[in-house]
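Bug #77: duplicate submission created two jobs. Keeping one. Sequence:
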Amino acid sequence: MISLSPAAVGEVKRLQSKYQSSNLFLRLRVESSGCAGLSYQIGFEQQMHPDDQAYESAGIKVLVDCRSLLYLNGLTVDYSEDLMGGAFRFYNPNATGSCSCGNSFTVG
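Kept job's structure:
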C-alpha cells in the first residue's frame, strides 16, 4: 500500500494541472543512487507497464514497479514547505537509515 497525505495530494494535483493530459499516473520508484545507497524518484507517466502495481490515494493514481515495491510497500508521501521551498517527504517503514536530506535511504 502507498498513501499520500492531504498536502501531497494537493501538490500532485497542482503539478498535474500543468500538463495537457488529464490521465496522468504518479510514478514512484527507487534507484541505486544517493549518499545512503537508494533514492526516491517521483514523476508523471501516461501509461501503466505490465510489471506495475497500481494504487489510488485520494483520487491520485499511483504506479510502482515490482522491483521498487520491495522497498516502498507501506510508504507515505507527504509535502511540506519551508523557507527553502517545498519538497515531497517520504516516510518509509522499510528504511533502516537515511541521509540528512531524506531523499536517500538504505534498507536491511
